[in-house]
Amino acid sequence: MSDESRFSLEEIKATAQRLVSAGKDVRSKLDELTVRALTQRDLAEKEVREVLTAITEGVSLGAAERADEVRSALGDALHGIDDALSHAAEAIQLALGEASSRTQEFAENDLRQGLSELKNLESLFLETVGNVAQGASGLIRDEFDALLAHTRNTGTSAGDRVRAVTEELGNRLRATAAEASVAGKRAAREVGARVATLASRKLGEAAERIAKKAEELKNN
Asked: How many structural domains comprise the chain?
């Protein structure tokens, strides 16, 4: 995607810090921010990692400004990011479903790479939070570590979503892999990129539906 269509990682970080510091509707606003940032990029590991790192660093800074509410601030923020990744998992699922039905355009490796990106969402989230925690100051690091330990035990919404769909998707993709491999060999240089771009578009469409529904509920 064009750099002109996205806001920078520093802007993402600053926005996350401001939202957490303000302390109002943190979960829903971090969900919205994360989805917005991801839709401006391809849903591939490198770009997802960059967005998650920027947002989590901003969350850490914002929580430090709420000394008496650090745990709740971090908890709300991480739940919001998790919610957004659940939307991203759904978008990748939809993209893979569409790609598997368009085997003249998508190579087998596109499908395998897309499935890999889907499976990695939860571990990428937890790894990124852990990395940011290591660079945080005492109280923030301790609270991050406590929340991470709890989350690893209970799982994430994104992880639940991924596990619910990967087996079914894996079976479907294996059934179409041979056909896709033959049809898409000439495009093998673009492995994964098309599914990631398609997934980003699906996430944007989902975000628009969610925003529209929220606006309708607010006006009722």
From this structure: 1
